[in-house]
Amino acid sequence: IHHTISTLTFTFAEMNLLCVTVVLGLLAGAWAQVMPAVDRPACDSPEAEAAALVAQDYLNAQHKHGYKYALNRIEDIKIISTPAGDVTYVMEVDLLETDCHVLDPTPVANCTVRPKVLTAVEGDCDVVLKNVGGALTVTAFKCKTEESTEDICLGCPTLLPLNDTNALDLVHASLAHYNNNSINATYMLLEVGRLTSQIVSGGPAYKAEFVIVEGNCTNDACEPLNDIMATHGFCTASSSSATVDCKIFPNMVKYSINSIIQYTFFLILFIHHGLKHHKLTRFHNPELNTLLSAESLESAEVVPVAPAVSVVAGASPASDPSTTPISLVPLCPGKIRFF
Ligand SMILES: *[C@@H]1O[C@H](CO)[C@@H](O)[C@H](O)[C@H]1NC(C)=O
Ligand SMILES: *[C@@H]1O[C@H](CO)[C@@H](O)[C@H](O)[C@H]1NC(C)=O
Ligand SMILES: *[C@@H]1O[C@H](CO)[C@@H](O)[C@H](O)[C@H]1NC(C)=O
Ligand SMILES: *[C@@H]1O[C@H](CO)[C@@H](O)[C@H](O)[C@H]1NC(C)=O
Ligand SMILES: *[C@@H]1O[C@H](CO)[C@@H](O)[C@H](O)[C@H]1NC(C)=O
Question: Which residues cross the membrane (predicted)?
Answer without folding.
Answer: none
